[in-house]
Design a protein that fits this description.
51% helix, 0% strand, globular, mainly alpha
Length: 183
């Protein structure tokens, strides 16, 4: 949906100006592209870098360069859980903030060394390159607060993609209280 929205912002109409294949499982898109399906693909790293290394493609840009911050990764809990466990929720949010701040304040090499165990098929050199790419695109937030602009941009994208029929007011879905109190 983000790719379609960015194309739309640039006057390119999916289905008319370009065909977008949407019936592939997310984990198969890189292999399909390398296998000759499509002229472009939207990938996260390390898949994007693996395509570059294989000589089958080159990263052209990051979609975040055209949209800004979109809160598509969030953590949710039932209201009853939050009310019954406010200390746990606050501790979790504090840990998220500290991790985000650590990521913002450390070098790509330092971050790569820490995340390496989670990417056993990627070299430390590749992970450092990837982290540098993400940092240079300003991909990662530095705090857990969901802002209004990103929230409404996400809804714009979802509506444009036909996945959201009615917009949701910010305060109905987002509670930044724990994020604002995090340390």
């Amino acid at each position: 949906m983000v790719l379609e929205y960015v194309l739309y912002l640039h006057g390119i109409v999916p289905g008319i100006d370009v065909e977008i294949i949407t019936n592939l499982a997310f984990t198969t898109t890189a292999g399909a592209f390398v296998g000759g399906i499509g002229d472009f693909t939207a990938e996260f790293d390390p898949a994007a870098l693996e395509i570059e290394h294989s000589g089958h493609g080159t990263v052209v840009t990051g979609l975040a360069n055209y949209t800004g911050a979109i809160p598509y990764t969030v953590f949710m809990a039932n209201k009853s859980f939050i009310e019954a466990n406010p200390e746990l929720v606050q501790s979790f949010t504090n840990a998220m903030r500290r991790g985000m701040e650590w990521t913002a304040n450390n070098t790509p090499a330092e971050i790569a060394a820490v995340i390496a165990p989670f990417f056993p098929h990627s070299s430390l050199e590749d992970l450092t390159f990837i982290v540098n790419r993400y940092q240079s695109q300003d991909t990662w937030k530095i705090d857990p607060i969901v802002d209004h602009a990103g929230f409404y941009l996400l809804q714009d994208i979802m509506q444009h993609g036909g996945e959201l029929s009615n917009r949701v007011p910010f305060d109905t879905l987002v509670d930044n209280g724990f994020a604002e109190n995090s340390r």
